[in-house]
């Protein structure tokens, strides 16, 4: 699965803090790359270059200039997960893509108070509720012959 980098913050001692579209934050230490891949030495030898880190347009990596970049998947797989005040936050557009929904459908579900955390097993067929999957990927719950709640799978 592709993990899209949304933002990057250069930290001290050649570390990066990267926020991903799925709400995960990873801290990645660039220092081991200096010896292994000489192209990364430019980040150390050019004053101010490391601080210019930015996520590329598609979120596929972190870039500094035409010569130096690193794949977002490398950071996701080998970075250390950290918690920040923004951990677990995702945009409406990213959430819609992750759930296979139209963004306006997701916004309406939130606006009308029909957004609940849950899954098929959490809703449960053994607790007396009937359920059906709707065209937009949500699940409608039935109690007493009325379709009452819409649950988006998490």
Number of strands: 10
Q: What is the alpha-carbon Rg in Å?
A: 21 Å
Share of residues in strands: 25-35%
H/I helix tally: 6
Query: Helices and strands, in N-to-C order?
Result: EEEHHEEEHEHHHEEE
The whole-number mean of residue pLDDT values reads 76
Topology:
Elements: E1 5-11, E2 15-20, E3 25-29, H1 31-36, H2 41-45, E4 54-55, E5 61-63, E6 69-71, H3 72-78, E7 80-82, H4 92-99, H5 103-111, H6 120-123, E8 130-133, E9 139-143, E10 146-151
Antiparallel strand pairs: 1-2, 2-3, 3-7, 4-5, 5-6, 8-9, 9-10
Detailed description of the structure:
The chain is α+β, with helices and mostly antiparallel strands and 154 residues long. Helices cover 25% and strands 29% of the residues. The chain contains six helices and ten strands; from the N terminus they run βββααβββαβαααβββ. The strands form three sheets. Strands 1-2-3-7 form a four-stranded antiparallel sheet. β9 and β10 (146-151) form a beta hairpin. The longest helix has 9 residues, at 103-111. The two termini are 17 Å apart. The relative contact order is 0.14. Mean pLDDT is 76; it is low at 117-154.
Structure at a glance:
The chain is of the alpha+beta class and 154 residues long. It has helices at 31-36, 41-45, 72-78, 92-99, 103-111, 120-123, and strands spanning 5-11, 15-20, 25-29, 54-55, 61-63, 69-71, 80-82, 130-133, 139-143, 146-151.
